[in-house]
C-alpha cells in the first residue's frame, strides 16, 4: 500500500514506531548471542497480583498466563485489564516477532486477524496514551513490556513478550507483567520474516484474553 493512503497522523505514527523499532533491533543484535533461558518467578506467580490468560492459535497453540505488575505500572495494568474485560484484545495478531528477541501484539485498531494487516503496529485503543512508568525491573525471558514510539509517553495497548534477556530495555520501556505459565507457547509463536520483524502471511492470533478473577 502506498504512503499516500495513510493519514498524516498514521504516517507520523509509522515513522516514530519504525525508528523506535530500529533502535530495538540494534540493541537486540548485541544481545542475540547471549544464552537464552526461562525460569518463572515463583514469588510473582504465587502473588495476589492480577493475571490474564491469552489463548493463542496458529503455529503456537495453547494458553499463556501473564501475571500483571500493578506494583510497577498501575496505569498500564489498569489499561490491559480494561481492554481484556471489554474483549478488545480478542482476535488480535502477533504482528511483529523477532526470533531470539520478542513477540509483539496488542494493536487493537489495525491488528485484528480479519482486518488490514498492512497497518498492524500503527494503532492503539480509543483510550488516551499513557505516561511512562519506567522502572529498573530487568527485562528477562518472559518479561512483558509496553510497546511505544520514540515518545516515552506513547504506550497505549500494544505489548511485547521477551524470548530472551534484554538489559538494553531496562528503564526505557514500561514493564507491565511476567509470563508465569505457558512460555512454551510463547516460544512457538510464528516468527516474522518481513522488515523489522513483521510477520508475513497469516500471523498467530490471540483468540481471547481473559482476566483471571
Automatic annotation (TrEMBL):
Which Enzyme Commission number(s) are listed?
Answer: 5.2.1.8
- Please give the biological process terms from Gene Ontology that the record holds: protein folding
Residue span, PPIase cyclophilin-type domain: 51-203
Q: Which domain of life is it from?
A: Bacteria
- TM ranges are 12-34
What is catalyzed by this enzyme? [protein]-peptidylproline (omega=180) = [protein]-peptidylproline (omega=0)
The record's listing under CDD domains reads: cyclophilin (cd00317)
**Where would one find the signal peptide in this protein?**
none
The cross-references to SUPFAM superfamilies, in alphabetical order and at most eight, read:
Cyclophilin-like
Record bears the keyword Transmembrane: yes
GO molecular function (one) = peptidyl-prolyl cis-trans isomerase activity
Top enzyme class = isomerase
Per UniProt, the keywords (alphabetical) are:
Isomerase, Membrane, Rotamase, Transmembrane, Transmembrane helix
Spell out the InterPro entries in the cross-references.
Cyclophilin-like_dom_sf, Cyclophilin-type_PPIase_CS, Cyclophilin-type_PPIase_dom, Cyclophilin_A-like
Q: Is Lipid biosynthesis among this UniProt entry's keywords?
A: no
Record-stated family: Belongs to the cyclophilin-type PPIase family.
> So what does this one do?
PPIases accelerate the folding of proteins. It catalyzes the cis-trans isomerization of proline imidic peptide bonds in oligopeptides.
What name does the UniProt record give this protein?
Peptidyl-prolyl cis-trans isomerase
Q: Which organism is it from?
A: Aliiroseovarius halocynthiae
Amino acid at each position: 500500500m502506498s504512503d499516500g493512503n495513510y493519514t498524516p497522523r498514521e504516517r507520523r505514527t509509522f515513522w516514530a514506531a519504525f525508528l523506535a523499532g530500529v533502535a530495538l533491533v540494534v540493541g537486540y543484535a548485541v544481545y542475540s548471542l547471549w544464552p537464552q533461558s526461562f525460569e518463572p518467578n515463583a514469588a510473582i506467580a504465587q502473588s495476589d497480583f492480577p493475571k490474564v490468560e491469552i489463548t493463542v492459535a496458529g503455529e503456537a497453540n495453547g494458553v499463556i498466563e501473564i501475571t500483571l505488575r500493578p506494583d510497577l505500572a498501575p496505569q498500564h495494568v489498569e489499561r490491559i485489564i480494561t481492554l481484556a474485560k471489554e474483549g478488545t484484545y480478542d482476535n488480535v495478531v502477533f504482528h511483529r516477532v523477532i526470533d531470539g528477541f520478542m513477540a509483539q501484539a496488542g494493536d487493537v485498531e489495525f491488528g485484528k486477524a480479519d482486518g488490514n494487516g498492512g497497518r498492524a503496529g500503527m494503532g492503539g485503543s480509543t483510550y488516551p496514551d499513557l505516561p511512562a512508568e519506567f522502572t529498573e525491573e530487568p527485562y528477562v525471558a518472559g518479561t512483558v513490556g509496553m510497546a511505544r514510539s520514540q515518545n516515552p509517553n506513547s504506550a497505549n495497548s500494544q505489548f511485547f513478550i521477551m524470548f530472551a534477556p534484554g538489559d538494553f530495555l531496562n528503564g526505557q520501556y514500561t514493564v507491565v507483567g511476567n509470563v508465569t505459565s505457558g512460555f512454551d507457547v510463547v516460544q512457538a509463536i510464528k516468527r516474522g520474516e518481513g522488515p523489522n520483524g513483521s510477520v508475513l502471511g497469516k500471523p498467530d492470533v490471540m483468540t481471547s484474553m481473559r482476566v483471571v478473577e
